[in-house]
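Hi everyone,

Forwarding the result from last night's run.
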Amino acid sequence: MLISMPRRRIAAVLASAVLGLALLTGCGDDVSCGLDQCTVTIQRETNASVEVLGVEAKFVSADENTVTLDIAGEKIALTKGQQAVDVGGLMVTLTSVTPEAVQVEVSR
């Protein structure tokens, strides 16, 4: 059975919308998402964590320039200005460190 060109386009648009919604699910108050990238704010307190793109990110420790996070069960150290680190298929970059919170960008 052949599908006409306009129906293919509609199907492609709908599939893209569903994929976009799937990526946005799990984004809470501490997570701001676009189609393929999220900005995550994690409070600097014991056991603070957020879920982003289906993966849990937990705060471990931080100083002025370096943050250690547990992402998907893997501990990583991020430094301000460092290129993105690949963790479980996600690219993670440290964007800011304050006394209250750390902010990272996570993308697919």
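The mean pLDDT is 74.

Cheers,
N.
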